[in-house]
Amino acid sequence: MFRQKVLVLCVLGLSSLIFPAACFATATTHIWAPSTDVQPYGVIHVTPADVYLPVKKDSSGNRVPVITNSGLTVGVLPFDKFNVEAGFDYKAGLGDLDHDPMYFNAKGGIPEGAFGEWFPALAIGAYDIGTKTDKTNNNVLYFKGAKTFKIKGFDLGRLSMGYFNGNGKLLRGPNGGKDNADVFGAWERTMTEISPKLWLCVEYQGTKSTYGSWNFGGSWKFSDNVSLLVGFDRYNNRNLADTVTVQVDIDFDAFSKLFKGKK
Question: How many domains is the chain built from?
Fold first, then answer.
């Protein structure tokens, strides 16, 4: 309980620097799990709805509801070599958990190359900090590093690797045992040979809890600030129904202009 209160207070403290009233937000992710990317200062990242559509019934033959996650994420600090984003999630389609749909998140990160050519991107954060004890307080803490690799100028893509740890009372395996901590990682690349608007990703998150999955997908940027991602989520717990995800992302840079010149 004390751990949950500290996490919530930290995120609320960061968020209060941005908005005095409530909003909804989702952490910057690859397809499924948080990435090392952090929203730039003043950029408001809007997620109208991340939709997860089940492709089959679960192992008991039950129809699985569609899950949606709407949000906003905002970059907080005006620094080139370190930034913080913070926000909220609003989730629906989780049955009784819909009575407490608000989740908080925050992340601090250093961009790739900030302290030299070979310096990796680094991030530490928390997400799915719920408001209902032993119901939605998944409280996933993580750290992650990422590096882009090239051979003779050819871009091999960016590799990410990290570790996460969540609430052992809620993150359980198919047999009911605690399964709340493991590695996660991703490969991603902008396919410039085809189009600089096309991005592809393969992602993995460990455990056989509801967080554990393989994720495959790609996105297309319709403009500098609007993109559409489509992916497939194959869960490590094969009792769960796999899903197709569709995610729309929109960025606004109006907030930073209010503070232009005040860095």
Answer: 1
